[in-house]
Amino acid sequence: MRDVIICRCEEVTLSQLEEIIKHHDPSARELKLRTRAGMGICGGKTCRPLLDKVLQKLTDKPPTDDIPLKVQPPVRPTSLAQLGGSGDET
Amino acid sequence: MKRNRIIEHPILDQLEERKTVTFQFDGKTLTGYERDTIASALLANGIRTLRRHEHSGAPRGIYCNIGHCFECRVTVNGTPNVRACITPIEENMIVESGKQLPSPLNPNNEHVPKTYREYMEMKDGEN
Amino acid sequence: MQKHDAVIIGAGPAGLNAAIALRKHDLNVLVIDEFPHLGGRLLGQLHEEPNGEWWNGIKEAEKLVNEAKALNTEMLTNVSVHHIQRKDGAFVVHTNRKNYEAKNVLIATGAAETANPIPGWTLPGVMTIGAAQVMTNVHRVRVGEKGIVIGVNVLAAAIARELLLAGIRLHSLALPINNAVTDEQSHPKMVMERLSRIAHLAPSPLLRFGGKFAKYKWAQNIAVSFYPKKGINMWDVPIHLRKAVKEINGTEQVESVTMVDITKDGEIIPGTEEEIPVDFVCIAGGLYPLAELAAVVGVPFKYVEPLGGHVPVHNEKMETPVEGVYVAGNITGIESAKVARAQGKVAGLSIAFRMKKDAAIQKEIEKAMDEVKTTRDNATIQFHPEIARGRDDIHAQFNKYLNG
């Protein structure tokens, strides 16, 4: 069967995640840093629950109350022009 | 554009006549209706591919359609990463699809330019 | 800079109804939404009530928007919030337009869809079932000629019906192939069990069908074991519990899906591959609370499975442990739009009470909280059989939080 993409933004596949989990017993953060899964432009809005699930399922750990992958601002990608003003006002 | 519209509906109101809006997508002139988003206007014109994945070049279109997934991001009047699914079309708007980026250091990739010059030449060739 | 009494993020049923409650107490409110039209995900909802009447979300949204407008409520569309910062006992709401200061914030950002990832799901023409709903009922554009829905659950059934009403053809609803992510969604027995436990609530034939097997596990087992190969028809579309979609095929866009027969435990039966031509695919994996803004402003979370996953801790008054931050709607747990609307009123009144300390408002809050419960008890659409237990869990967590 063809491999299945889990993180659409960074095109990280299930077998890539499985490989990392098998060899590193990673935290959610380590899994992200090693594969870039969840680091794309959507900020994990599509893959966050999928990554939680993969980790839970393959490591047999129950879900924690804290969100496994820390949520960081900005929660929508934003441009420097938006943050600092477009310059039109000056 | 009309062919793909749901005009009659057994429960919802009939689709009202709306003002048409002319815009451009990758150099092609298209029409949509007022209140259309870029994504709905393009789909009504039979266009589903809004960008190519930056690295693999795989085609992508709308996925969530409400602004969460960023799959439909396009360049609008020169501003990149605009979500086609929640951005209304405007008269004379210029919309460009997302392109695969060059990866000159990847020896396996035959379809992308190996140098910046090749990339620029390819880009010029497209226009 | 002007400081609003409340900034409300999300102009859906919860956000709009909260704004109405606040304006009735003459407080200064700003409602923000990133969609071009007000109404949130009310827009597009369409289902038949048990009494035969149609619940049309577009009309329901219109009513709320008109009421809010009549109360001179300031509402902005096409504005995205990317951060909420605490500052001097108040808040700064950062958006793509400018920053807004607020004494209180209500986060009513709703839900996002969970995926059933299967090979090929990034092809153009594959979309979430919610995406198809909005394209069909809001934008009135056909998503394709003939498609298939991957996932058998309440959301899938509700929106499949809407696609059919709009004259769009569906091959079937089928399960996703089993992998580490699709898990329960791909397991015939678990899907059957879930359907049967919510059956008593629903008018739809799918859930009525599930209801026949409601009480007895053995009956569910038999139903799954002897589930007809052709599926069971609902509105002339087969629902499959013993067939799964293994792959989505195509080069530039969706051309077909590969379907296989599966055992009652979700395993592929070899040699049963069948290629089914479709030009669109809807992925229906359910919903989860979209709570990022609650996380960045420092609200603690609890994992409550019946509510849809990680939920910001809150009480029945819609307060969070961060003073001045409120939540309402699907961010607090996946339920129907009617419950969200009722919760919005509670949140609006709670903010009004914080601002005015008026005992009369306290009474209104009590009444509004009762309304939430009544609405929940009478809900015709419920996403999880143990929603009430989930609610108790999260409210208990709030009390634990406050009392150490």
Order of helices and strands of chain B: EEHEEEEEH
Mean pLDDT of chain B: 91
Sheet with most strands: strand arrangement of chain B: 2-1-7-5-6
Task: Note the main sheet of chain C.
Answer: 8 strands, mixed
How many strands of chain C?
Answer: 21
**Count of helices of chain B?**
2
Helices and strands of chain C: which structural class?
alpha/beta
Q: How would you sum up the global shape of chain B? A: elongated
**Low-pLDDT residue intervals, each spanning 5 or more residues of chain C:** none
Q: In which range does the helix fraction of chain C lie?
A: 25-40%
Tell me how many strands of chain B there are.
7
CATH topology of chain B: Ubiquitin-like (UB roll)
What is the name of the CATH architecture of chain B? Answer: Roll
Shape of chain C: globular
The top level CATH class name of the largest domain in chain C: Alpha Beta
Return the CATH class of chain B. Answer: Alpha Beta
Task: Describe the overall structure.
- The complex is a heterotrimer of chains A (90), B (127) and C (404).
- With 90 residues, chain A is mainly α.
- Chain A is 40% helix and 6% strand.
- In chain A, strand 1 (5-7) and strand 2 form a beta hairpin.
- The mean pLDDT of chain A is 91.
- Chain A starts with a strand and ends in a 6-residue tail after the last helix.
- Chain A has helices at 14-24, 28-35, 48-59, 80-84; strands at residues 5-7, 12-13.
- Chain A has 4 helices and 2 strands, in the order ββαααα.
- Chain B has 127 residues and is of the alpha+beta class.
- Chain B has one domain: Ubiquitin-like (UB roll), CATH 3.10.20.
- Chain B is built from 2 helices and 7 strands; from the N terminus they run ββαβββββα.
- Chain B starts with 19 loop residues before the first strand and ends with a helix.
- With 404 residues, chain C is α/β, with parallel strands linked by helices.
- Chain C has helices spanning 13-24, 57-70, 129-138, 154-165, 188-197, 205-211, 217-225, 292-296, 337-356, 359-377, 387-402, and strands spanning 3-9, 29-32, 46-48, 54-56, 74-76, 81-87, 90-95, 99-107, 111-113, 126-128, 146-150, 169-176, 232-234, 237-249, 256-261, 274-277, 280-283, 287-289, 301-304, 309-312, 325-327.
- In chain C, strands 10, 11, 12, 13, 14, 15, 16 and 17 form an 8-stranded mixed beta sheet that branches. In chain C, strands 1, 2, 5, 6, 7, 8 and 21 form a 7-stranded mixed beta sheet that branches. A two-stranded antiparallel ribbon of chain C has the order 3-4.
- In chain C, a hairpin with a 2-residue loop joins strand 6 and strand 7.
- In chain C, helix 1 packs parallel to helix 2, helix 1 (13-24) runs parallel beside helix 9 and helix 5 crosses helix 7 (217-225).
- The longest helix of chain C has 20 residues, at 337-356.
- Chain C is globular, with a radius of gyration of 22 Å.
- Classes of the chains: A mainly alpha (90), B alpha+beta (127), C alpha/beta (404).
- The A-B interface holds A 8-9, 11, 40-42, 45-46, 77, 79 and B 53, 55-56, 58, 60, 63-64, 68-71, 73, 79, 81.
